[in-house]
Design a protein that fits this description.
- Helix 2 runs antiparallel to helix 4.
- This protein has a 4-stranded antiparallel β-sheet.
- It is globular.
- The protein has a domain of 98 residues: Alpha-Beta Plaits.
- Helices cover 36% and strands 24% of the residues.
- It starts with a helix and ends with a strand.
- The chain is α+β, with helices and mostly antiparallel strands.
């Protein structure tokens, strides 16, 4: 009699284990569409290390200054944020506080940005907060 009870229990347990191992498909929705016909340009990537004495209010002021940079008309797209807490690897450097990535049509757009009053005001108001700034500019290709 115990064997008859044991067999359904084993079949039930086996079905649970099989169900747990099923792969569930996840649907990912694209939030925005990027124009595929858009020409490549120049990517301006800036990494900021802030001074150790920069408090929360000063950091917020810095972020507000970054947000104002998008007023420069030659900027096509921009992204800004803190370092990610990704796992440490030999090729990963997430020691910076913030990164700013700006996309221009070309070098001329970059040059307009560098001398634009909004950018110059940002540098003037914020540079005392920088321990280090590192810039990488690269031409984008299709």
């Amino acid at each position: 009699m115990q064997r008859l009870v044991l067999i359904p229990f084993l079949l039930f347990t086996l079905s649970l284990l099989t169900t747990c191992n099923e792969v569930k498909e996840e649907t990912i929705e694209i939030e925005r569409v990027i124009d595929g016909d858009m020409e490549p340009g120049l990517m301006h990537t800036v990494y900021f290390w802030l001074n150790d004495d920069v408090d929360e209010a000063s950091a917020q002021n810095f972020e507000t200054g970054i947000e104002r940079l998008v007023g420069v008309p030659s900027i096509k797209r921009s992204f800004f944020g803190p370092a990610a807490s990704t796992p440490t690897r030999g090729v990963t450097d997430n020691s910076f506080d913030y990164a700013l990535i700006i996309w221009f049509d070309d070098v001329a757009g970059h040059d307009i940005y560098q001398s634009h009053p909004i950018h110059l005001k940002f540098v003037e108001e914020q540079e005392a907060k920088f321990k280090r700034v590192q810039v990488y500019d690269n031409v984008l290709s299709k």
